[in-house]
Amino acid sequence: MSNHSETSMQLKRYSFLVHGFVQGVWFRAYTHRAAVNHNVTGYVRNLPNGKVAGEAQGTETALAAFLKDVDKGSPGSTVIRVETEIQKIVEGEKEFVIRR
Questions:
Q1: Exposed e or buried b for every residue in 73-87, given b needs 16+ CB within 10 A?
Q2: Which of 3, 13, 28, 33 is catalytic?
Q3: In the chain, how long is the greatest CA-to-CA distance?
Q4: What band does 8 get if pLDDT is binned at 50, 70 and 90?
Q5: What whole-number distance in Å separates Cα of residue 16 and Cα of residue 65?
Q6: Helices 27-37 & 60-72, crossing angle to 10 degrees?
Q7: Is 28 a catalytic site residue?
Q8: Which of 13, 33, 46, 99 is catalytic?
Q9: 17-37 confidence digits (pLDDT tens)
Q10: CA atoms of 39 and 96, how far apart (whole Å)
Q11: Cα separations (Å) of 71 from 19, 29, 96, 100?
C-alpha cells in the first residue's frame, strides 16, 4: 500500500519546450536558478529556432513548482507556452546544467 508521502518522493522527469521571446533575456540562467531552488536536476539549452528546451527531474511537487517558474519566465522574457512530455528517469543525475 502506497501513501501520499511515498508518491510525492518518487522521481519524475519531463522534457520541456518553451515558446516565446526566451533567448537573449537570461532565460537559461533564470531556469537554472529555479531548478536549484526547487532541487531539480537536468539541463536547459537554446535551440536554433529561438525556443528553449531542456529536461527536468525531481519529485512531482518540485517539478510542478519549477515548471510554474519556467512558465512565468525571466524578467524581459515573454513565454507564450511550455510543452512538456514525460521522459525516462536518468539515474545518478546530480545537478542542473546550462548547455550551450
A1: bbeebebeebeeeee
A2: 28
A3: 48
A4: low
A5: 14
A6: 150
A7: yes
A8: 46
A9: 999 999 999 999 999 999 999
A10: 9
A11: 10, 14, 18, 21
User: CB–CB of 38/6 below 8 Å?
Assistant: no
pLDDT in tens, 44-73: 999 999 999 999 999 999 999 999 999 999
- Closest alpha carbon to 40 in 77, 22, 14, 76: 14
- In this prediction, residue 6 carries a pLDDT of 45
Alpha helices in 1-100 (DSSP H): 4-9, 27-37, 60-72
